[in-house]
Design goal:
2 domains, about 200 residues, globular, about 20% strand, about 35% helix, DeoR_HTH, N2O_reductase_NosL, 4-stranded antiparallel β-sheet
Length: about 200
């Protein structure tokens, strides 16, 4: 079972049962407890669940919509959890964008307010801190999201290997944000096929 599939299953289980122990989720999905701890991290950051002793509970005080149902904060596209970029803001507020393209643009708009931002490795779906992530822009495979597409990689060497096979350029967090802003200013075709960014 792929990580994003497990997270969706955990989301369904916790919404149905309200409280679950980590060991219980581990047995149900047939993976280690360490894997479950990694899988629940995006759900904690979204505010969907909160930690309790030995497990998690549905955060009923301030429920956050599932990103698979609701749209990108910036462009309105439906959010694919595998590509999502999440911004954690003061007051337990979370914004989710459809991809790193919109995530980096929104991050630059809110710069001082962002407490933390996370995205997922393009291959492994591992949750990454956006500031330590390596970004690939201008590669050939089309993921059917915003243009220019921006893909995330945990390791620079993996990103460089991807670029050797599929083109593009590897950028750090700051470089990716600057380059994306510059391209948005100079290329009228940049953005989402359905919406434009202001």
């Amino acid at each position: 079972m792929l990580p994003h599939t497990r997270r969706q299953r955990i989301r369904e289980l916790i919404q149905k049962r309200r409280n679950m122990k980590i060991g219980e989720i581990s047995r149900e999905l047939g993976v280690s407890e360490m894997t479950i701890y990694r899988d629940i991290q995006p759900l904690l950051e979204e505010g969907l669940v909160k930690k309790i002793y030995g497990g998690i509970t549905l955060n009923q005080a301030d429920p956050v919509p599932s990103p698979t149902i609701y749209g990108c904060t910036l462009c309105g596209r439906q959010v694919d959890p595998r590509l999502a970029y999440r911004l954690i803001l003061p007051g337990k507020k979370t914004e989710t964008t459809c991809c790193c393209h919109c995530g980096l643009l929104r991050h630059s708009q809110l710069s001082d307010q962002v407490l933390q931002a996370v995205c997922q490795d393009f291959f492994s779906s591992t949750t990454l801190s956006s500031r330590t992530t390596w970004y690939v822009m201008g590669s050939e495979p089309v993921i059917r999201c915003c243009h220019p597409q921006v893909l995330c990689f945990e390791r620079k060497d993996t990103a460089e290997k991807f670029v050797k096979g599929f083109g593009g350029v590897v950028l750090s967090f700051g470089e990716a944000m600057q380059r994306l802003k510059k391209e948005m200013e100079t290329d009228p075709t940049c953005g989402c096929s359905e919406h434009t960014h202001n």
